[in-house]
Amino acid sequence: MNISKARETRIFLPFGRSFSDKDWTERILGEVILPFARKFEGKLEWFWFIRLYAPRDKDKGNCDFDSLPEKCFNSKEWHRSVKFRFRLNGDSRKAEKFLKERIRKTGCVITDIGDYSVIDDLGSPRFAPKDLSCKRKIERAKLVTGYFHILSRIVLDSLVKKNGRWAIEKCPHRFNYFGTIFESLLHLFCIITPVKTAVFSVKKGSRKTITAPMEFVFMSKDGWRKLKEHPVKM
């Protein structure tokens, strides 16, 4: 797997009557990323994406955030977007032109398409211990990229369009409580790896709620404190 000369963009979906609050991610995937992946299948070595929903003063990276139009923020000053990372073999200009056209046609907004350093991201201390050699960090970054790529491909493969709306296909099974295969994939991930799964009881003043450990990292900066850890058996 080649992780050099990778590219990235951040696709923002405006708020308004034309854009649903429920299936906005699936709309971007179905109308932008899926056509892109199909058209350039022979040149697209890998890709992956994540969905984000955050307040205006947070998660501003991977774009020229200050140039975003006001329609990208709701009344609560939150924004929503999909970060899209990819690598194309050869000249990427034609593919990137197609990507921009699909984004505009869908009514979405991007500020640019820029370079993406895989090793700085997926070879960082978050994914690779600091004492690993440079060679090992590169290999780790490749493995994580491959994992994200396969997972993203499964998401696209699970997309269906019904009555003009994009959605994740239903897969009824006693192990899929909410009706998608990703519950079983999550379960297998948890029993393949040694990951600990838990939720936290947290408090800020008189307010109490339940949150995930990752989210608590950000909440703690806003004055929330952990009351108790509740292990979840997967």
Strand content: 25-35%
How do the strands of the widest beta sheet line up side by side?
2-3-1-4
Helix content: 25-40%
Secondary-structure class: alpha+beta
User: What is the number of beta strands?
Assistant: 9
- Low confidence ranges: none
Could you tell me the CATH topology label of the largest domain: Alpha-Beta Plaits
Query: What is the top-level CATH class of the largest domain?
Result: Alpha Beta
Number of helices: 6
Q: What is the count of distinct domains?
A: 2
Shape: globular
Query: End-to-end distance, in Å?
Result: 32 Å
Descriptive report:
The protein is α+β, with helices and mostly antiparallel strands. The protein has two domains: 6-157, Alpha-Beta Plaits; 198-231. Helices cover 33% and strands 26% of the residues. It has a four-stranded antiparallel beta sheet with strand order 2-3-1-4. A three-stranded antiparallel beta sheet has the order 8-7-9, covered by helices on one side. A two-stranded antiparallel ribbon has the order 5-6. Helix 1 runs antiparallel to helix 2 (93-106). The two termini are 32 Å apart. 21% of the residues are buried. The mean pLDDT is 93.
Question: In brief, what are we looking at here?
Answer:
This protein has 234 residues and is an alpha+beta fold.
Structural features:
alpha+beta, Alpha-Beta Plaits, 2 domains, 4-stranded antiparallel beta sheet, 3-stranded antiparallel beta sheet
